[in-house]
């Protein structure tokens, strides 16, 4: 007789509980795998982020050090500029003072001089005789020995059609002042016939002749600027005395001594 083979294991039917357990187990396994993978990825990314952050921090530290260095360098440069500016202002003041002193000294060296303007030029002219004639016509006592030098000077502006001025150096300031006073008095007495070419023996049309202080180029510039300012600001009087420029706004106002061009900018 044959025997039946009973080696096969009989499996029981799947229940809902079994299915739930299997699904839960699969879900847990999947979540665990995902968590491990995510954790691994996050670890890598976190390391990369930390590395980048550290690099940024290093860059910021470097830039900050550079900035602080530049700021310190800028501060030093600003201090240097401030010092240079102060030194420059001090030097400008010193130069201005020296120029003023030189101008005063140069003007003082002309204390015995006068300048005669608008005398027509002639090849055979005798300027000493012209000066002597002016002295006679104005009533000034003058001897030939009182004239140390008499010459024409170059024009400041070569295009100017006026004759070259004549500069006379007298023997002393006293002689010079006496000569100037005579001319001033003559012009006051003869307001309608002030000193002109006819008085010094030059024929033809009468042309005015001016006797003025022999100013330095600097003082001439100041005098010209003072006259221009006087016109603009309605100052009535601008005159020269002893090589200095004076201004007065009216008959009753105080006179002002103009020592440099900057002073004119302060007038009102």
Automatic annotation (TrEMBL):
Keywords: Coiled coil. It comes from the Eukaryota. The keyword Ribosomal protein does not apply. Residues 216-265 form the FP protein C-terminal domain. Pfam families: Baculo_FP_2nd. Residues 64-108 form a coiled coil. InterPro entries: FP_C, Transposase_22. PANTHER family: L1 TRANSPOSABLE ELEMENT-RELATED (PTHR11505). This is Zinc finger DNA binding protein. It comes from Operophtera brumata.
